[in-house]
């Protein structure tokens, strides 16, 4: 055997030797795989865009997918709408902005998220998401495990001092 022989030459066509291939995972299991899932869904605009609705009275949301261990939500935000300060209980998540612009506020400050931006968070991560822009926005949220709790938190802003 020549040292220049490749693994493919030695093993032959891998598609012919199915036992050498790893089975596809049932669902994502790592942060990178969940981020990849969110990017894949985001790229399939023909699938999610026709589902989007805008509601002037409340944030609109639609569950796109429920799978063992995780779920995927589509949300729309008209200007001025926000989530309130909250965490996601025992769930980790990936937030992906699909259209428009959202502002994420945390105890560390605020961050503007444009279309394509992603945020990954662990259980207990406290934030508020708001559409501070003048245009509607759409976002995709992947939660692992599925979202069962979303505790609200008091505002972190200090009250304004008044003088008599």
Could you provide a short overview of the structure?
By secondary structure, this protein is α+β, with helices and mostly antiparallel strands.
Give a verbal description of the structure:
With 164 residues, the protein is α+β, with helices and mostly antiparallel strands. Helix content is 13%, strand content 31%. It contains three helices and eight strands. The radius of gyration is 21 Å and the shape is globular. The mean pLDDT is 86.
Give the strand content: 25-35%
Structural class: alpha+beta
| Total E-strand runs | 8
Reading side by side through the largest sheet, how are the strands ordered?
1-2-8-3-6
Tally of DSSP helical segments = 3
Termini separation comes to 93 Å
Largest sheet: 5 strands, antiparallel
Show unreliable segments: none
**Helix and strand run:** HHHEEEEEEEE
Task: Label the overall shape.
Answer: globular
Report the C-alpha radius of gyration, rounded.
21 Å
| Average pLDDT taken over every residue | 86
The helix content is: 10-25%
SSE inventory with pairings:
Blueprint: H1 7-11, H2 31-43, H3 45-48, E1 60-67, E2 70-77, E3 92-99, E4 101-106, E5 109-114, E6 118-121, E7 128-130, E8 137-144
Antiparallel strand pairs: 1-2, 2-8, 3-6, 3-8, 4-5, 4-7
Features of this protein?
single chain; 164 residues; alpha+beta; 3 helices
